[in-house]
């Protein structure tokens, strides 16, 4: 992943734009160097959480926010035993407010208790994702008369949050299963936590360092290299998951929404545009895939976009764009994002609200397109337009024939061949030659949405 070259190609982007972006970076970096952001002050004066932090002792602050991560029976357990786990369909999150010892050598946590028990979880937001390499964490509740835990080598005054970066590299999974869950799980601690990142990858830190440093005041710990025993006044193991690229304010810990998360991302990455009306000239980013689901007449598509009045940025292989600091600002400066169904569309999360995302729905991707990126766009205040291709536009017509069930009835491939077969056919074998006459209509609609803002 780290080895991949960064190949950002700008479809004849005016030089002025590049220069102004450079200036913007300098400005933003300068501003971010200032530790106490406006965000913090606003939060300080407006949120009841902050008032708590001011008046309660550190221990009470920690207890209060740890308790928010468990509910009902689990909350009562937490209050009586100092340890509890919230078990949901996808994620398991365990918390403790007892003085614990974490042995990084084998990720074993010793929790002093009145009874003996052991709980093992894989600290990843989607537990059922068996393909991911996630180091398990053992939490041992022990009676101090029966077990003597190893001595502390380092003591910390704040709780630890343990999670895994899993097998990274796919922006959808990173956002869906790590970044959003991490935000949901830790934001209320107001950076007074220490992050312990299992299965640590430098590329993950390079990419999401700004998010992590906006959630914790301390350097991220890599237990793979720091093989000591650490004492903490409490912990969170695992990350809370709500839904597909989603935040639900009624779910644990309560009160988090997509708009809050987008605000947080703007702060973390120093993004300039909150609403599309702040962008003067309509600018369109085309995510150009190079392996699968390629646009076979991409040059013509770009010409059409320019002819309609868009400034066009073509990004080849969005996945490669690992310098998120740079890339997020670029997306945030766009009023329209266009791409074929695929993980790169996750980047819609950086668009200003009121902007438009156009998803090119290939044959057999209708359900996934809508579920994964359409619903999310709507939840984040981005207008969602579908461009559903017709049989003739798909390369599968050549491959299987115009009257084949693959082209005529994609659903039957799922029903008869199963998910894996369908995946191979529709996601791996399919490219598209866009019908420019029909596509123009979609682009015109997108243009009118982002230019006609008085409606
Ligand atoms: C972890 O290591 C400690 C000390 O070496 C040992 O006592 C404990 O049983 C180990 N835990 C696991 C889960 O292997
Ligand atoms: C012990 O831990 C297991 C696994 O987390 C849990 O199902 C069980 O209820 C616990 N038992 C007690 C007595 O707490
Ligand atoms: C065990 O815990 C009890 C109650 O917290 C405490 O009074 C006692 O000193 C502890 N014993 C050891 C050996 O640490
Ligand atoms: C391990 O972490 C402690 C406390 O955060 C730090 O002081 C120490 O230098 C680290 N050791 C290594 C080998 O990274
Ligand atoms: C949010 O969570 C609540 C409680 O779990 C649930 O009833 C509701 O359907 C969820 N909302 C969405 C949009 O999923
Ligand atoms: C990302 O881009 C920014 C701005 O151009 C630059 O300052 C930074 O060093 C880059 N980060 C990495 C990890 O390449
Ligand atoms: C596809 O079906 C139509 C109508 O049934 C038929 O006219 C046409 O010849 C068929 N085309 C091919 C390539 O089989």
UniProtKB/TrEMBL annotation:
Residue ranges of domain Glycosyltransferase 61 catalytic in the record: 240-358
Topological relation to the membrane, as annotated: Single-pass type II membrane protein
Entry GO CC: Golgi membrane
InterPro entries attached to this UniProt entry: Glyco_transf_61_cat, Glycosyltransferase_61
Tagged with keyword Coiled coil: no
GO molecular function, one term: pentosyltransferase activity
Primary location recorded for the protein, binned into one broad class: Golgi
Transmembrane segments: 7-28
Keyword annotations: Glycoprotein, Glycosyltransferase, Membrane, Transferase, Transmembrane, Transmembrane helix
Compartments it resides in: Golgi apparatus membrane
Name of the molecule in the record: Glycosyltransferase 61 catalytic domain-containing protein
Species per Swiss-Prot/TrEMBL record: Penstemon smallii
Lineage: Eukaryota, Viridiplantae, Streptophyta, Embryophyta, Tracheophyta
């Amino acid at each position: 992943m780290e080895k991949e070259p960064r190949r950002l190609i700008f479809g004849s982007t005016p030089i002025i734009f590049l220069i102004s972006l450079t200036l913007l970076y300098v400005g933003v970096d300068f501003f971010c160097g200032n530790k106490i952001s406006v965000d913090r002050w606003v939060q300080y004066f407006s949120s009841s959480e902050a008032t708590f932090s001011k008046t309660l002792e550190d221990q009470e602050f920690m207890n209060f926010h740890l308790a928010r991560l468990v509910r009902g029976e689990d909350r009562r357990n937490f209050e009586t035993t100092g340890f509890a786990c919230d078990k949901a369909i996808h994620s398991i999150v365990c918390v403790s407010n007892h003085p614990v010892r974490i042995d990084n050598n084998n990720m074993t946590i010793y929790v002093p208790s009145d009874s003996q028990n052991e709980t093992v979880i894989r600290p990843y937001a989607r537990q059922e994702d068996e393909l991911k390499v996630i180091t398990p964490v053992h939490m041992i509740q022990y009676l101090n008369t029966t077990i003597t835990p190893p001595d502390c080598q380092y003591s910390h005054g704040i709780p630890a949050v343990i999670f895994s970066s899993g097998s990274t590299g796919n922006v959808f999974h990173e956002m869906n299963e790590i970044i959003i869950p991490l935000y949901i799980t830790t934001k209320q601690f107001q950076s007074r936590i220490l992050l312990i990142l299992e299965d640590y990858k430098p590329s993950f830190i390079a990419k999401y360092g700004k998010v992590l440093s906006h959630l914790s005041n301390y350097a991220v710990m890599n237990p793979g290299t720091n093989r000591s025993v650490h004492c903490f006044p409490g912990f969170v193991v695992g990350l809370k998951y709500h839904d597909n690229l989603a935040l639900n304010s009624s779910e644990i810990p309560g009160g988090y929404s997509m708009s809050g998360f987008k605000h947080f991302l703007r702060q973390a990455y120093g993004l300039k545009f909150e609403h599309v009306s702040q962008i003067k000239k309509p600018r369109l980013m085309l995510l150009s895939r190079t392996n699968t689901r390629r646009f076979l007449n991409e040059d013509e598509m770009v010409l059409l976009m320019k002819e309609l009045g868009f400034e066009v940025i073509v990004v080849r292989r969005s996945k490669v764009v690992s310098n998120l600091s740079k890339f997020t600002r670029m997306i945030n400066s766009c009023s329209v994002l266009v791409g074929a169904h695929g993980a790169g569309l996750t980047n819609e999360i950086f668009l200003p609200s009121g902007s438009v995302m156009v998803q090119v729905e290939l044959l057999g991707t209708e359900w996934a397109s809508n579920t994964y990126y359409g619903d999310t766009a709507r939840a984040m205040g981005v207008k969602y337009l579908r461009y559903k291709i017709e049989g003739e536009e798909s390369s599968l017509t050549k491959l299987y024939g115009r009257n084949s069930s693959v082209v005529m009835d994609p659903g039957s491939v799922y029903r008869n061949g199963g998910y894996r077969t369908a995946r191979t056919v529709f996601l791996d074998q399919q490219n598209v030659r866009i019908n420019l006459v029909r596509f123009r209509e979609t682009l015109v609609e997108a243009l009118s949405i982002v230019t006609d803002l008085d409606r």
